[in-house]
Amino acid sequence: MKTHSTFSLWIILASATLTVMAGSIISPVLNLMREGLGADPVSVAIIITTHGIFVALCSPLIGILIDRVGVKRPFVLGLVLYGLAGGSGLFITSYWVLIISRIFLGVAVAATFTSITVVILNLYDGAERNKVMGWRGSSNSFGGIIWLLLGGFLGRFSWHLPFAAYLVGIPLGFIALLAVPEVQQEKIQNPNGESKTSSVLQIFKDVPVLFVIYGLIFLANILLYAIVVFLPQHLEKIGISNPFYIGLFISIAPLAAGLTSLGYGKLRERLSYSMIVFIALALWAAGFTTISLGSYSWLIAPSIALFGIGLGMVMPAAMVWVGESVPVSFRGRISSYLATFGFVGQFLSPIIFRPVVFSLGLSSVFLVAGGGCAFLFLLSLIFMRKF
Asked: What pTM does this model have?
């Protein structure tokens, strides 16, 4: 399909950077926020992840809305709300008021994340779709680096200042209103001739691999936020406390993911989806295990990169995999569960690892994560061959 323009593609990719920025831009000031708000390490981590649970709750509703009214209006409104809700952190000094603002941010991210996925699935086909979805992954990752470094830089002046970056969602929303085309679901040719009368429940029964994809996204986000939330505190223990340097370390993961996603189109030509899963789990197992054993920056940095490479393979693969597995008329609803499972993973990450922190210590978070990935790799060898 060639109903898009280069400018609209740039707006889509620029907007894609915001979904990652939602939590990561304030990660470099995590320790400063903890002191400024008088919160414990896990409580301050909840500030970063609160939006995730509301992304999870609202995404299915956004998916229904997209399938009924089209994707453009949820996309535009999501961007504007993103700017308003996220930017309000500039002025908030109360822990609980900040939590409330993050709830509205979650609604905005739900609309933005799912809309971008459906826009790309609707506007592009075949190899071009793989390429653009890879670019979307790269935009997420490279944008995440820029926002992380900006957050670390601004955090040197005040922990409030990084919240100003969220305001970019407002002008992006108005530009998207003018630049991004609407493509109604019923106008998209369905190459496989699937019936539009199927139910969502029937889709899940007919395409069980969807649960594998959702589980993979869930795991990837648990691991991502193990780094976002616990790596700054781990680095502080080994003598690295400057917010800018912490931002540099965290940015290694999106840098590696972005470089990998840039070549996703060619990668997909050579590897099956199951092989992508095998490789990613192996990389994650090696990377997290090494982080847990490392007390030196030269050892931690390449370990983070291993995780990023796997992430750069998995994220575009999952989004295209879902889009290719279901009828066009269900893309909004089925794609929305990617956000649901992904952001539930983000929200639950500090909660899942909390008992590990308090019983075994901070570095054990990464050892447990690595061991879990190794176990899943072995399981995937047994059960994923047919997919």
From this structure: 0.79
d(CA 119, CA 302): 34
- Crossing angle of the two packed helices 243-262 and 126-154, in degrees rounded to 10: 170
Alpha-carbon gap, residue 170 to 176, rounded angstroms: 10
Which whole-number Å values give the CA distances from 247 to 43, 192, 375, in the listed order? Answer: 20, 46, 30
- Asked if 186 and 330 touch (Cβ cutoff 8 Å), the reply is no
Residue 125 phi/psi, 5-degree rounding, is -130, 155
Is 178 buried (19+), middle (13-18) or exposed (0-12) by CB count in 10 A? exposed
Q: Is residue 192 part of a domain?
A: no
Stretch 248-254: mean pLDDT = 83
- Between 122-136, 189-203, 310-324, the lowest mean confidence (pLDDT) is in 189-203
Q: Residue type for 246, please? A: I
Regarding predicted confidence, which is higher, 362 or 121? 121
Percent pLDDT > 90 in the chain is 33
Contact 18, 169 (CB under 8 A): yes
Quote the number of domains for the chain. Answer: 1
d(CA 138, CA 126): 19
Question: Whose CA is closest to 59, among 217, 173, 194?
Answer: 217
What is the total residue count of the chain? 387
Residue 193 lies in a domain: no
Residues 6+ apart with CB under 8 A from 268: 130, 276, 317, 320
CATH code of the domain containing 314: 1.20.1250.20
Dist CA 42 CA 60 (whole Å): 28
Chain-centroid distance, C-alpha 275? 21
**251: phi then psi, degrees, rounded to nearest 5:** -70, -15
Cα 162 to Cα 160: distance, rounded to the nearest angstrom: 6
The DSSP 8-state label assigned to residue 159 in this structure reads S
